[in-house]
């Protein structure tokens, strides 16, 4: 999944030169708590921290000259990958004033638009175990739950909470000259193999950089950063999707140009990962009254979202056989809606569900090609980093989540209708103009054995 970058950004290096840390702003992570639960439902409070992705940070020369402005590199400081990494420094973040990120106890609030030195749009953050390492979550055979408030997210916005197979230290061990690491939010990867990252795996991504034609802040380079991705939650107040994206490898891997696949390559399906995933969107699966304002799951109110990763033998080392979704709201436990699409039965993500969905919807089955649920289970078993984010979509206006998509297909075709939003909605200029005060709040994060993180009344 792609997030949009707004201020000056960057991350860096190659083993022959250093990923430097700037000294203009101290890096102080906002604190947050989460809970680890046991079989009996008792939960232990864990202390964590929030860090913003390196791609949102100011990157500059030692004297403070921008290495990247708008959507282009400084040609003097960054004529090539090596020189750029030698010249540029990654600095600390001012979380509230610049990025609109605040925490309180067990919650984090991400504001959409923040005006300070410049205009910041959205954010991508990670949960840390301490000041230098990401928290690794091992959820195979377990469940992951959290509370979320999407009441202020309209069409075209996406409050996304998901897991990715990043290095726990941000890449320091694999790239020893990396001086920044997880403390500064380095090492991002996902199943889209994003090429908009300024530095990947210790190497700058300057060479081949193409500025975006419709986004004044982003572009993409020759390299991408691939890894497995488990989208626990992509949602606004009109639609939601739960989507596993397996890869051929569980760990973060660099790709080159069109071999990355994804939206910025000539062959979307030419990479190591499944860019589409196997999604469960209640609206797309036929129930148009399950999720939304005043619906069964009422997006005007806070809800608890529970995702269960069921294995074939009920253990945390077995093979992933299904992914289940529950909601808890107003004291009631609500199961995922059942599919009403002919030929696609059930309300869980299983191999049969995914196979049938791809056939009925006419979608390319890259899910099976990249190992399906078994490969996703391997990634979950190896541990993944939690991402908490808010973004709008310069590539497809978020229509793939909350409207009819692709827009060239009749809405009567199975799988095209994904949400009630207009196909003219979601244009970032409109979204940013209409909803500058939008925000999402994530809270009450819990991990534990099946049925341990919520009360079943």
UniProtKB/TrEMBL annotation:
<feature type="disulfide bond">
    <location>
        <begin position="37"/>
        <end position="43"/>
    </location>
</feature>
<dbReference type="GO" id="GO:0030245">
    <property type="term" value="P:cellulose catabolic process"/>
</dbReference>
<feature type="disulfide bond">
    <location>
        <begin position="189"/>
        <end position="227"/>
    </location>
</feature>
<feature type="glycosylation site" description="N-linked (GlcNAc...) asparagine">
    <location>
        <position position="287"/>
    </location>
</feature>
<dbReference type="GO" id="GO:0031154">
    <property type="term" value="P:culmination involved in sorocarp development"/>
</dbReference>
<dbReference type="GO" id="GO:0030248">
    <property type="term" value="F:cellulose binding"/>
</dbReference>
<feature type="disulfide bond">
    <location>
        <begin position="255"/>
        <end position="260"/>
    </location>
</feature>
<comment type="similarity">
    <text>Belongs to the glycosyl hydrolase 7 (cellulase C) family.</text>
</comment>
<feature type="signal peptide">
    <location>
        <begin position="1"/>
        <end position="18"/>
    </location>
</feature>
<keyword id="KW-0326">Glycosidase</keyword>
<keyword id="KW-0119">Carbohydrate metabolism</keyword>
<feature type="disulfide bond">
    <location>
        <begin position="78"/>
        <end position="84"/>
    </location>
</feature>
<keyword id="KW-0873">Pyrrolidone carboxylic acid</keyword>
<feature type="modified residue" description="Pyrrolidone carboxylic acid">
    <location>
        <position position="19"/>
    </location>
</feature>
<dbReference type="Pfam" id="PF00840">
    <property type="entry name" value="Glyco_hydro_7"/>
</dbReference>
<feature type="disulfide bond">
    <location>
        <begin position="278"/>
        <end position="354"/>
    </location>
</feature>
<dbReference type="InterPro" id="IPR013320">
    <property type="entry name" value="ConA-like_dom_sf"/>
</dbReference>
<feature type="disulfide bond">
    <location>
        <begin position="193"/>
        <end position="226"/>
    </location>
</feature>
<keyword id="KW-0136">Cellulose degradation</keyword>
<dbReference type="InterPro" id="IPR037019">
    <property type="entry name" value="Glyco_hydro_7_sf"/>
</dbReference>
<protein>
    <recommendedName>
        <fullName>cellulose 1,4-beta-cellobiosidase (non-reducing end)</fullName>
        <ecNumber>3.2.1.91</ecNumber>
    </recommendedName>
</protein>
<feature type="disulfide bond">
    <location>
        <begin position="67"/>
        <end position="88"/>
    </location>
</feature>
<keyword id="KW-0378">Hydrolase</keyword>
<feature type="disulfide bond">
    <location>
        <begin position="155"/>
        <end position="421"/>
    </location>
</feature>
<feature type="disulfide bond">
    <location>
        <begin position="247"/>
        <end position="273"/>
    </location>
</feature>
<dbReference type="InterPro" id="IPR001722">
    <property type="entry name" value="Glyco_hydro_7"/>
</dbReference>
<keyword id="KW-0624">Polysaccharide degradation</keyword>
<keyword id="KW-0732">Signal</keyword>
<dbReference type="GO" id="GO:0009251">
    <property type="term" value="P:glucan catabolic process"/>
</dbReference>
<dbReference type="GO" id="GO:0016162">
    <property type="term" value="F:cellulose 1,4-beta-cellobiosidase activity"/>
</dbReference>
């Amino acid at each position: 999944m792609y997030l949009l970058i707004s201020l000056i950004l960057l991350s860096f290096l190659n083993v022959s030169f250093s990923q430097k840390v700037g000294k203009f702003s101290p890096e102080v992570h906002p604190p947050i708590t989460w809970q680890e639960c046991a079989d009996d439902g008792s939960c232990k409070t864990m202390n964590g921290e929030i860090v913003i992705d390196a791609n949102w940070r100011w990157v500059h020369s030692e004297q403070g000259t921008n290495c990247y402005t708008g959507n282009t590199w400084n040609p003097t400081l960054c004529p090539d990958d090596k020189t750029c990494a030698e010249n540029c420094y990654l600095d600390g973040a001012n979380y509230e004033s610049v990025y609109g990120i605040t925490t309180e106890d067990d919650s984090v609030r991400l504001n959409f638009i923040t005006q300070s030195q410049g205009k910041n749009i959205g954010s991508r953050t990670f949960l840390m175990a301490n000041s230098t390492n990401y928290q690794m979550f091992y959820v195979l055979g377990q469940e992951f739950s959290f509370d979320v408030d999407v009441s202020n997210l309209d069409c075209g916005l996406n409050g996304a909470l998901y897991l990715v197979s990043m290095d726990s230290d941000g890449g320091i061990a694999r790239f020893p000259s990396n001086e920044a690491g997880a403390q500064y939010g380095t090492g991002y990867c996902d199943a889209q193999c994003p090429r908009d990252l300024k530095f990947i795996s210790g190497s700058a991504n300057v060479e081949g950089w193409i500025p975006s034609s419709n986004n004044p802040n982003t572009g993409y380079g020759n390299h991408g950063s691939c890894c497995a991705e488990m989208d626990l939650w992509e949602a606004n107040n009109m639609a939601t999707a739960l989507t596993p994206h397996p890869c051929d490898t569980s760990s973060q891997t660099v790709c080159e140009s069109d071999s990355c696949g994804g939206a910025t390559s000539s062959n979307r399906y030419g990479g190591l990962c499944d860019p589409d995933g196997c999604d469960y969107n209640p609206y797309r699966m036929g129930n148009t009254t399950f999720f939304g304002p005043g619906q069964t799951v009422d997006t005007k109110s806070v809800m608890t979202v529970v995702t269960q990763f069921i294995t074939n033998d009920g253990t945390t080392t077995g093979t992933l056989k299904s992914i289940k979704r529950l909601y808890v709201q107003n004291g009631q436990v609500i199961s995922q809606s059942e599919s009403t699409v002919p030929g696609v039965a059930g309300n869980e993500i299983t191999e049969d569900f995914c196979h049938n969905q791809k056939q009925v919807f006419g979608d390319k089955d890259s899910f099976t090609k990249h190992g399906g649920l078994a490969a996703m289970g391997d990634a979950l078993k190896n541990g993944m980093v939690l991402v908490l984010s808010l973004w709008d979509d310069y590539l497809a206006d978020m229509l793939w989540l909350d409207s009819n998509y692709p827009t060239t297909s009749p809405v009567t075709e199975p799988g095209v209708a994904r949400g009630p939003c207009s196909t003219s909605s979601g244009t970032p200029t409109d979204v940013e103009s209409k909803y500058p005060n939008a925000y999402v709040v994530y809270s009450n994060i819990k991990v534990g054995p099946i049925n341990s993180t919520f009360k079943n009344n």
